[in-house]
Amino acid sequence: MTTNKQILKDVGEDLIKEIDARLSSKNINNTNQASDSLKEVSTNNNLKIKGVGYIRFIDVGRKPGKFAPVDVIQEWVRTKLGIQDEKEVKQVAFLVNRKLAVKGNRMFLDKSKGLQLDEIIEMGIEKINEAITDNIVLTVKSEIKTIMQGI
């Protein structure tokens, strides 16, 4: 019989693999920082997936209203767009940041472009329920077998 902690650990690792796969398939992991930051933390009755704070923007997007941190946008311009000239990096970063402040990003405009973490969480809940149910069934069968042998 598998312990609840092991079930949660296994599901956590599966969820991280799914998040990694989505980051790659949707081409939204240009620095690999989001993937590299993902960690599973489980106890007997709790599962957490921890990662960088900006992962929520990769999931549901950044709404319009404020400028993003300039250094983050400049790094994105360097890595994603391949621009290295500092003057051009600053110019492009300003334009990208202004667009974000006015319209938000593509995940905000179209949720299907983001990670869709709600879907991944649902998948995890289903896996946990299935594994715990299987564990209970195995335990009950084992107990019944033990009782039947004693009769």
Describe this structure in words.
The chain has 2 domains: 1-52, no CATH class; 60-117, no CATH class. The protein has a two-stranded antiparallel sheet. It is built from 7 helices and 2 strands; from the N terminus they run ααββααααα. α1 runs antiparallel to α7 and α4 packs across α5. It is elongated. The protein starts with a helix and ends with a helix. It is mainly alpha-helical.
Please render the helix and strand layout as text.
Blueprint (H helix, E strand, L loop, with lengths): L3 H22 L7 H5 L1 E4 L4 E4 L4 H5 L10 H12 L4 H18 L2 H4 L7 H34 L1
Antiparallel strand pairs: 1-2
Short structural description:
The chain has 151 residues and is mainly alpha-helical. The protein is built from 7 helices and 2 strands, in the order ααββααααα.
Low-confidence stretches: none
The tally of structural domains comes to: 2
Strand order of the largest sheet: 1-2
Mean pLDDT: 91
Fraction of residues in helix: 55-70%
> How many beta-strand segments?
2
Proportion of residues in β-strands: 5-15%
**What is the approximate shape?**
elongated
Largest sheet: 2 strands, antiparallel
Radius of gyration: 22 Å
Features:
151 residues, mainly alpha, two-stranded antiparallel ribbon, 5% strand
